[in-house]
């Protein structure tokens, strides 16, 4: 995983119960995005994928990342065996084990830059909130395979997306792949029905489209250390995340004992 190039982590969050009807299209969207990012950062940065390998979106993303030849890191919200027990479905556990053998797993609490566990949150939610915070703080690009609904569930995809949108103006890149869940939810409004980069809409809780070309330009400038007064805040947010990504990957390299 060592490299003198800047590090860009592309991380994923999403539903564990993606509707089967959307699996193929979601996989194609992930494939296209990773190919696109490899092209625009070629020679500029080292791309690393981050996925917690939960059922559904996480495992789908990790498979595509490995097929693109990317290193995959697996930030776990709790120790490995405890986390495996939350996957429930034996098939999901088997896929987790297969993918984990091709990746580097680590417990997020072991990283010195990870935020402390929130004691004001329900014990079942706090580890996932911390996982979302680690992904947000280290991922230059966050991929959300999600129905677009902000349910208020702590540590969920909507929670992490909402906080990322609110934290930076404009926010660091979020690539939304709209999917429905097997439980019957539907993706939000037709104007946001296609995969693409998103930002906060004019109305709280709404999303707006962001031109891919603008995101590509920002990523190139961040990698090349090229300044642009018009993009100063965006570049600052991206470079901060890339700095944390470099710290995380250097920490992982220092000892094989980081794996769990």
Word description of this protein:
This protein is of the alpha/beta class and 260 residues long. The protein has a single domain (7-254), classed as Rossmann fold (3-Layer(aba) Sandwich). The chain is 42% helix and 17% strand. It is built from 8 helices and 8 strands. An 8-stranded mixed β-sheet has the order 4-3-2-1-5-6-7-8, with helices on both faces. Strand 7 and strand 8 (207-210) form a beta hairpin. Helix 7 (212-224) packs across helix 8. The chain is globular. The chain starts with 6 loop residues before the first strand and ends in a 6-residue tail after the last helix. The mean pLDDT is 91.
Task: Report a brief summary of the structure.
Helix 1 crosses helix 2 (57-67), helix 5 (126-138) crosses helix 6 and helix 7 (212-224) packs across helix 8 (232-254). Helix content is 42%, strand content 17%.
Number of strands: 8
Tally of individual domains: 1
Radius of gyration (CA) equals 17 Å
- CATH T-level fold name: Rossmann fold
For this structure, what is the CATH class?
Alpha Beta
In which range does the helix fraction lie?
A: 40-55%
How far the N terminus sits from the C terminus, by CA atoms, comes to 18 Å
> What CATH architecture do you see?
3-Layer(aba) Sandwich
Tell me the fraction of residues in β-strands, as a range. 15-25%
Classification by helices and strands: alpha/beta
Task: List the helices and strands in order.
Answer: EHEHEHHEHEHEEEHH
Mean pLDDT: 91
Instruction: Tell me the major beta sheet.
Output: 8 strands, mixed
- For the largest beta sheet, what order do the strands appear in spatially? 4-3-2-1-5-6-7-8
Unreliable stretches covering 5 or more consecutive residues: none
Tally of contiguous helical segments: 8
Gross morphology is: globular
């Amino acid at each position: 995983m060592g490299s003198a190039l800047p590090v860009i982590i592309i991380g994923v969050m999403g539903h564990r119960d993606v509707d089967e009807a959307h699996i193929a299209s979601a996989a194609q969207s992930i494939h296209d995005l990773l190919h696109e990012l490899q092209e625009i950062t070629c020679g500029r940065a080292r791309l690393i994928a981050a996925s917690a390998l939960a059922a559904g979106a996480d495992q789908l993303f990790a498979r595509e990342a490995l097929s693109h030849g990317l290193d995959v890191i697996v930030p776990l919200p709790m120790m490995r065996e405890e986390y495996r027990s939350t996957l429930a479905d034996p098939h999901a556990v088997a896929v987790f084990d297969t993918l984990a053998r091709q990746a580097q797993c680590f417990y997020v609490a072991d990283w010195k830059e990870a935020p402390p566990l929130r004691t004001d949150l329900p014990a079942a939610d706090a580890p996932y909130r911390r996982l979302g915070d680690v992904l947000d703080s280290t991922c230059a690009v966050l991929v959300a395979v999600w129905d677009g609904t902000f349910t208020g569930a702590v540590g969920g995809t909507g929670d992490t997306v909402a906080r990322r949108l609110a934290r930076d103006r404009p926010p660091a890149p979020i690539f939304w792949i709209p999917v429905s869940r097997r439980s019957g939810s539907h993706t939000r409004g037709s104007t946001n029905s296609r995969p693409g980069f998103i930002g906060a809409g004019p109305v709280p809780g709404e999303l707006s489209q962001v031109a891919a070309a603008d995101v590509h330009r920002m990523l190139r400038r961040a990698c090349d250390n090229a300044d642009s007064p018009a993009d100063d805040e965006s570049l600052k947010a991206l470079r901060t995340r890339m700095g944390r990504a470099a710290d995380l990957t250097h920490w992982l390299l220092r000892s094989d004992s980081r794996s769990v």
